Amino acid sequence: MVTNTLTILQRENARLQADHQALHSELAQLRDFVEILKGLTAANEAVTSDEALRTLLHRTFQQSMDLLNAPDGSLLLLDEETHELQFVLVKGMLAENLLNYRISADEGIAGWVMQNASAALVRDVRHDPRFSHTIDEEFKFRTQSIAAVPLTGSGKVFGVLEIVDDGIGFLRAEHYLPGPNDIYVSQTQI
After folding, report:
1. What is the DSSP secondary structure assignment for residue 171, as one 8-state letter?
2. The domain that contains 67 carries what CATH number?
3. 113 in Cβ contact with 125 (< 8 Å)
4. How many domains does the chain have?
């Protein structure tokens, strides 16, 4: 009887050890799965935030162009690694040429706006020492007037909204041109 009981206990012990091993393996797989889900959730949140930010910036850009009745404009974002402003939204004659084009973050009126976190309204760029002729010369364009404002968020400037015109639409721009903190992106807007 003792031998029989011992055999039963040994079988039960072997079964329990096998079950324990299977559960341990399943637990490890579940932990891996949870880590994957965490990664996917974080990636989804980042995409959602990026999409919301892109939508907000696109809407701000379009409304600014409509408000100033301007034919050409661009939205430039700072690439902190290269210290360059990249044209990410462009409308007008140079749209195809300027999309993804880069300039130094301290070049021209856009660079001045970036560095000073201050808006600029320039009716005749030919008489403004901040103006860079680089784009006009490279793409055979003639900029007349520029209205530019910094894009700020989390306490720093991350880009510039720049509207380019022949001068007519800017006659009333000083009534509408935002101040340095009027185009502000916060985490609550995203």
Report:
1. G
2. 3.30.450.40
3. no
4. 1
30 strand-pairing partners = none
Task: Report the DSSP beta bridge partners of residue 120.
Answer: 148
Q: Which of 37-51, 55-69, 83-97 has the lowest mean pLDDT?
A: 37-51
Residue 23 lies in a domain: no
Dump pLDDT digits (tens) for 85-129. 999 999 988 899 999 999 999 999 999 999 999 888 888 898 999
Residue 113: give the domain boundaries.
38-175
Of all residues in the chain, what percent carry a pLDDT higher than 90? Answer: 31
Distances (CA, A) of 142 to 7, 49, 102, 133, 190: 96, 37, 19, 9, 36
> What pLDDT was estimated at residue 107?
95
Beta bridge partners of 22: none
Query: Does a structural domain hold residue 15?
Result: no
H or E, element range at 104: strand 102-104
Pick the closest to residue 161 from 179, 139, 174 (CA basis). Answer: 179
- Does residue 146 form part of some domain? yes
Report if residue 135 sits inside a domain.
Answer: yes
pLDDT at 62: 85
Q: What is the DSSP letter of 166?
A: S
- Contact in structure between 178 and 160 (CB atoms under 8 Å): no
